[in-house]
């Protein structure tokens, strides 16, 4: 049976998430975090050895779960190229369930131990795109093509995360993008495979 999170620890995690989302890692203040949830800095250090440890406690569980989901979805897409829309939906569900953590990691982590997350996430997406194209055309595709397509998809996902006012809108926009991407992928394979 999982142990309950101490109420003070839980308050610090929530206050830290709000502070990092509002101010970013660099602009965040341990004193503001503590003050916003009525906890002394001494009590803070009982639960976390540093602001960095609090930051990691907020984002690292999401990173671990993301890595597991990404690996699962990438494997399924390699086995069947037509599972992409389902994978897109599951990924968007995950991103929306952890929207604040993703926005912190993608836009607010500069100066933290996780500041490279954005580049790692993009690189992971580009590798998945490359493997999909390689399977479809029987050779490695041009890197500039992969960079362009992965960049478009990455920035679109981020725009949906930042801009959708409610879950239904985010799912709708994601399904539109997934359908468009799948059609574009198939059209590229059919019409331009020799140039890729």
TrEMBL record:
Limits of the HTH tetR-type domain: 6-66
Alphabetical UniProt keywords: DNA-binding, Transcription, Transcription regulation
Highest taxon above the source species: Bacteria
DNA-binding region of this protein: 29-48
One GO molecular-function entry: DNA-binding transcription factor activity
Entry keyword Membrane: no
Stated name of the protein: TetR/AcrR family transcriptional regulator
Upper classification of the organism: Bacteria, Bacillati, Bacillota, Clostridia, Lachnospirales
């Amino acid at each position: 049976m999982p142990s309950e999170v101490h109420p003070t620890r839980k308050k610090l995690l929530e206050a830290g998430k709000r502070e990092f989302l509002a101010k970013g890692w660099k602009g965040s203040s341990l004193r503001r975090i503590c003050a916003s949830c009525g906890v002394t800095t001494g009590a803070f250090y009982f639960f976390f050895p540093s602001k960095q440890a609090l930051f990691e406690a907020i984002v690292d569980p999401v990173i671990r779960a993301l890595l597991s989901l990404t690996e699962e979805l990438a494997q399924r897409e390699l086995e069947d190229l037509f599972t992409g829309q389902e994978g897109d939906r599951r990924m968007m569900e995950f991103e929306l369930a952890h929207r604040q953590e993703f926005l912190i990691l993608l836009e607010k982590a500069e100066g933290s131990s996780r500041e490279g997350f954005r580049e790692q996430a993009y690189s992971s997406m580009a590798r998945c795109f490359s493997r999909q194209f390689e399977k479809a055309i029987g050779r490695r595709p041009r890197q500039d093509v992969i960079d362009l397509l992965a960049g478009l998809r990455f920035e679109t996902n981020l725009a949906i995360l930042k801009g959708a006012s409610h879950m239904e809108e985010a799912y709708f926009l994601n399904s539109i993008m997934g359908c468009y991407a799948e059609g574009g992928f198939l059209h590229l394979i059919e019409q331009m495979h020799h140039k890729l």
